[in-house]
Amino acid sequence: MAMSSPLLNPYPAHLPPKPPTRLHKTTKPFTCRNSLPKTTTTNPLLKDPNHKLSWKNELQNAYPTESSALEFDVSNEKFQELVDRRCADNLRMLILDSVQKAKAGHPGMALGMAEIGYFLYRHVLRYNPRNPKWFNRDRFVLSAGHGCLLQYVCLHLSGFQSVQIEDLKRLCKLGSKTPGHPENTVTDGIEVTTGPLGQGVANAVGLALAEAHLAARFNKPDVAVVDHRTYCIMGDGCAMEGISHEAASLAAHWKLNKLTLIYDDNSNTIDGSTDLAFTEDISLRFKALGWNTITVKTRIGKLSKKEGTSKAHHGIFDEDDEKQMKEKVKWENREPFYVIPMVYREMQVQADHGEELERDWYSKLYYYESKYPQEAVEFKSLLYNGMLPGWENSLPTWSTSDPLDATRGYSEKCLNQLAKVLPGLIGGSADLASSNKVYLHDYGDFQQPASPRGRNIRYGVREHAMAGISNGIALHGGGLIPFAATFLVFSDYMKNSIRLSALSHAGVIYIMTHDSIGLGEDGPTHQPIEHLVGLRAIPRLLLFRPADGNETSGAYKVAVANRDVPTVIALSRQKVAAHVEGTSADAVARGGYIVSDNSGPNLPEIILIGTGSELCLCEGSASVLRKEGRRVRVVSLVCVGGFSTGSRWNTKRWCCRLACRDELVSKQARRSGEYVGPEGVVLGVEEFGASGAYLDTFKKFGFTEENITRVAKRLLSQ
């Protein structure tokens, strides 16, 4: 188990920030006293003469040797140590009872980290369970999400209403507040949804970045309104996943000194000992990245016969094992889910302290408002969604007379206009800012100590960490609106994080350029084919493929407004019209809409459906067909997920005769006949593209006005 230092004392603003974390190996057992500094120096309960008496029988029964001399005239420090140990025992027994009751779960990590979890929630974390969303709380992330029972029990004992004893009894049950991995949308007190290993590490880096950025923008020499820390527990699996390395590298580069990463180094994974596939020295790895390190070993499945083995990772315990586990901590003859009454009172100390800290913070905020009114208005606007009234009016509009550009170019103009009216807009690219065209001019780079106020984030070539960090920024609660950019083909590197954006309601804006075979010369390694289909299949993810400048503005309007829904905006490298006649920024929100139609009161003979840069090809083909007397309707399907199948343009099955959608349509979609019907045709690419000038590539795969017109005529003649 590795943890970071420095932990609590903030560094003066004029000093350069120190690196985040430390790791070094030791076989010493974990003790609460000497590992993490406490946020409170004295326990107010110790002033109560009855407090020690209330614990007397419990401690003497549990630790007869150590407490035999206890006439409770011992030092407060020794007494508190025994109380902490007994509270950790109780936490561990609740973990055991929950797994046994559910006949499912992952008890190993939770049992091994019981002291850590208890100590964090009792002595370290600053939070208020009566107001779980208090802005200046410390953030805790369980990257090793399979150990969620550790957090559920800590939340319950700490007084969070979201987890009651009955919830612990319903672990992993349908509709329970205690799902098999932590979900921030299900359980108050859970900051981010974790489960896929390593994701939480990147989320924690995002949370810490958000704190550092906001602190630099709003704190003053005489008052700090942004001052909290981020703690994260990761396991061996997290350490193996590449995303944790990417994120840790960035955290050290950015000198996020308020980030603490606790590594549960228990030397076991599902298949067996980590020696099977993982023998590197994580301490040296983190030191090489620039972290400070401290390490203490933990034991997976502590107390069980399975202790120290991979068998403890998941599953229940047999009756003999359960019995001996309880005997080891003198828990015999106690009913399942028993909580020592004094444990609740002990945990209440930290909750009361958090409530006091929140009151103090509001006092600081009141002082801040009176002395720095202009900054206070912006700060409070961020806390209450980060969007000024009328922000959407800043988005540019284009006419048919404007010069041609790629939709990535129109996107650049949208972003830079939005940056002026959205103080929370922040983000960057995976070393492609100039190619994705996402740099916010005049807003500087986020770098510490030089410019933590900067709103451009330099992620380097770390797509996966970029997406995970963006989730942390979005879920921080500070009103920041993160965007993350790369080529569409590299979305595969980010897919798991994008999925978690949707699952955890993180309103990240993903800007994916070079969205088709139209990127040309880079060839099939960089030409996305199946990517849009896969991304469109993710629930709660909006994907826009705008055809021109105005649809690009419309996509940003929807993306920014939906703060709990992630968005992908797929953009072209090749130039397209600034305004395809008939497109509308406002209509983008409908997902699909009619661009042009010469049918009058009659039904169209054929409908051409296009997305993105192919819409103009549909319009060109329609113009040819109309000159020949055909009734043609052209539809922009800019967002498949946002489109309702009941839209008026799809009222007759036989009307959908030809759909020129983007080339990224799978065979399965073709067979299903979605949108085009059984008599329609989908023009698509079923190969890996080709290297060549983009016009030559389009011609090779049939993406020309001439070919679309030829296919349409063939259909009309049938």
Automatic annotation (TrEMBL):
Enzyme Commission code(s) on record: 2.2.1.1
GO molecular function terms noted in the UniProt entry: metal ion binding; transketolase activity
Gene3D superfamilies: 3.40.50.920, 3.40.50.970
Reported cofactor(s): Co(2+); thiamine diphosphate; Mg(2+)
UniProt superkingdom: Eukaryota
Entries under SMART domains matching the protein: Transket_pyr
Reactions it catalyzes: D-sedoheptulose 7-phosphate + D-glyceraldehyde 3-phosphate = aldehydo-D-ribose 5-phosphate + D-xylulose 5-phosphate
Residues spanning the membrane: none
Alphabetized UniProt keyword annotations: Magnesium, Metal-binding, Thiamine pyrophosphate, Transferase
A GO biological process held by the record: pentose-phosphate shunt
UniProt xrefs under CDD domains: TPP_PYR_DXS_TK_like, TPP_TK
Region (Disordered) residue spans: 1-49
Ranges where the Transketolase-like pyrimidine-binding domain occurs: 405-578
Keyword Ribonucleoprotein included in the entry's annotation: no
The keyword Metal-binding is annotated on this UniProt entry: yes
Family under the similarity heading: Belongs to the transketolase family.
Name listed for the protein in its UniProt record: transketolase
